[in-house]
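Form P-L/3: holo structure prediction, ligand pyridoxal-5'-phosphate.
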Amino acid sequence: MKQPKNKFETEAIRTQMERTKFLEHSSPMYLTSSFVFEDAEDMRASFAEEKDRNIYSRYSNPNSSEFIEKVCKMEGAEAGFAFASGMAAVFSTFAALLDSGDHIISARNIFGSTHTLFTQFLPKWGINTSYFEIKNLESIEAMITPKTKVIYAESPTNPGVDILDLQVLGNIAKKHQLLLVIDNCFASPYLQQPIKYGADLVIHSGTKLMDGQGRVLAGITVGSEELIDKIYRFSRITGPALSPFNAWVLSKSLETLALRVDRHCENALKLAEFLEAHSSVNWVKYPFLKSHPQYKIAKKQMKAGGCVVAFEIQGGLKAGQKFFNSIQLLSLSANLGDAKSIVTHPASTTHSKLSVEDRIAVGITDGTVRVSVGLEHIDDIIKDISQALAAI
Ligand SMILES: *Cc1c(COP(=O)(O)O)cnc(C)c1O
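OUTPUT (holo model):
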């Protein structure tokens, strides 16, 4: 793991591109698709990669470079590439690194679009995926074949907020010389740095906690220079690059990541404790509640519990819908990590197409509710959830 010079918060604020002659305090926005050359020799040398400089914003741009450098310092990574969305990062990472015939071993509980990518699209190019149960990491070794290249996981998971032991995953990957790729979006680099535990690549959807204000889509993959170079070569040709404007927004957002995530986690823990004591709630899952099945692992690898709380209300599907319809202040939306608190009822919305058995397999019962706890005053968040619980 690469150690930055200063503490996390300082790097998040002070990592900045070189100032121009105007000595601006805040980085300017470089809304330019291309860059100019001094002469023929300059252009030749630039295209021959004898110089490290910007040529065209599909390859690189000062704003995305600043964003990438910050995230690298936050994650302890050598290099990175920034994408237009989290899914562009996930897809491009696999497309760049895997060949036809290669095999992925993935946690069963992963982000829905990533699951669809693995099951419906990667097989078109002969890349197949096997799934391990997140409560049984020991089963991974038996699934390894000579074709296996990657172990893939998220922690905490969505929407079940389960925790996977990153050190155990790191040890298995190292022992079998497999790449460990972790989607760290739910934790953000502030709460957890997977490279410490042996991850080779870390992926983020910048859309979530990184932007944190629901404005832009973004993604990023960071890791070793060697792996990122392969991802860069694929991406500069296929064009999933982050726009300079969105990179500028993201880079600014990261200045307040630590502050925001601290408050998200403080509010989320308070809400989780309130729910745990509520008579209409069957169970609550939040990584930093003592009752969480992987509480000890969460404490070991995370600084705090994150912004997502899952719980089950009594009364199943009907009560879930009634609760959802009774929410007044919080947003009914599909995003997370936003300053605005967001409630979802997966069984009647995002996961309604799944059979009850398939839903249960990924930890979603009919009464499961997921709250992405925002930055409003905690009293108002609790007041809204409390009145919606009283309405069921
Ligand atoms: C949202 C999300 C993604 C995808 O990110 P987009 O920016 O929406 O493309 C990937 N992984 C996780 C865990 C997510 O929550």
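COMMENT: Residues 85-87, 111, 113-114, 154, 158, 183, 185-186, 205, 207-208, 217, 219 surround pyridoxal-5'-phosphate (CB under 6 Å).
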